[in-house]
Amino acid sequence: MKIDSTLADDDTNLFLGAAWFDPIEAGIRDQIRGFIEGLVEEELATALGRGRYQRGSVVSADAEEPPSVVPAAPAAAVGHRHGHRQRQLLGSFGAVELAVPRARLQAEDGGSREWRSAVLPRYRRQTRQVEALIAGAYLAGTNTRRVRRALAALFKGAISKDTVSRVWRRVKTDWQAWATRSLAEEDVVRLILDGTVVRARLDKKATTISLLVVLGVRRDGQKILLAVKNMGGESEAAWRAILDDLDRRGLKTPELLIIDGAAGLEKALAALWPQVPTQRCTVHKHRNLLAHAPDRLQEEVSADYTDMIYAATAEEVGARRRAFILKWKLKCAAVAESLEEAGERLFTFTRLPPGQWKSARTTNAVERLHEEFKRRIKTQTVLPSPETAAMLFWALLASGQITMRKVDGWSTLTEPPTDRILDLAA
Fold this sequence. Notes:
alpha+beta; 14 helices; 10 strands; elongated
């Protein structure tokens, strides 16, 4: 067999042994090692007031130049060096071994204390960029073992299962701070509330739990996540626990509520904010109507319902609703009864400026988050714990992996709902 003469010998051994050694990356790591060690040495020289091997010097404080050691008259020592310790730091440049200087500084009580570097904190093992990379890989919908395997080659095996878990614990600390933050300064005018179900491990068994989500819409139109909690279901007590927590944290009374129509949620909201206009999700009601209609009539029900909900004016919506009720009472009474059950809450959107109707008719803003969340976690058939489910939902938004845009019609959010109520007389 004839060998291609254009193929260099080195290329034939590309994936064998020493061929993997890259002198460029090795040289870069050496330069980075020297740079980091230099930063720490400079920091220590500033703290001691003198450089290494110097006794009567001080550190310059010229704002135009980097700190440097300059000769000066002998001064009282503020501390002394005592060797180095070996540290490993993992960064986007790979793992590097560092010789970090040690020193003791004089304390105010006459004793001494160990010097701590601010450049390289005591227990710092990775740069923040690496921690963000690890957390991002985890949030992308994989698990601890797969994150470690995926990053092992990049970081020469320096990523362990404990490393991933340690980074995740830091994310958990941020999550707890977010979940208890004050909401008094949030200018929220609209709430969108909905729940979904996921499977999580509880008492060593895979269990279906509910994730209850509350989105807020600021007066400038920006959607924000206000709360997400794992609960056993969507009962009145479960929703009331979330709403009471929002109230305790200072959330102002909103001007509009958008819900999926769950009975427990409606009761909880009526107990806390009975006067706030509420919009039942038109998509959820559409599903309810189809569930009451035989298969051969579902297409016709959808067409009539769509014509009613997407009419151009409030008057047209009212007229088509009356026509819908009259028609379906004769063709399929269960469909008409299901629509009547929703009452005026299905048409609260008509009290808003027409530009807001699209965003106010449905809970789609939360539904899209549910769909994206489930897409990200589908590689994990069962989540480690119920708390992990809520934390993952929040982290996907906090990390920027899922973003939310302003609602349609945001420029008119300064206009509150009118007192006009749709005429429901059929």
